[in-house]
Amino acid sequence: MNHEIDPRVDKTRRHLRQALITLLQTKNVEDISVQELTATASVTRGTFYLHYKDKPAFVSQALDDLVTDLFATGIVTVSIGEVITNPADPLRRVQVLSLAKALGYINDHAEAFKTLLIDQSQLAVEHRIKQQLTTWMQQFYHDFEDQFADLEVPISVQTAYYVSATVGLITDWLENDLIYTPRYLTKCIKKLHRLMTVGNITFTDFFV
Which terminus of the chain, N or C, has less C-beta within 10 A? Predict the structure, then answer.
């Protein structure tokens, strides 16, 4: 069964999402009307209600879609041999986070992420990012549980540490007007991760 979204529907949703981001730069979400959203997006109210039940449903879906797009761009499938040295099965496929792709996406949508992570933090986009990143990291752990390094630290603590550090770094990067390129920031993170390499698989291997 084909679940692909009609390109016209996708275009309409993206226009409405961009309208929301634009309006959030000067208003709180509760002060934005459907009329303002549709006028800014150049779509009709009828079109809006064809896709969304009401404004809260739209806002929630728009923010979810932005975060989903981030991970759709950043998560890549590679051979485990590209991630660690001398794995048991070097051709085994694994899904990991490409820092360069994820940071590149944030850089390309800097206006949206600055608005949502810094100026409108009450919209909980940070929480959405943390949730999805946690889910992907948990999947990575389950894929390699038998080969994971025993750090004598609960997996939940390790995951929370990496998730908080990653999202915190992204927020700091945005607050400082993206002073580093995605490529340079990726190199810096990888250098830090190499310092924490212990031989067996750890969560540092999830970030490539």
Answer: N
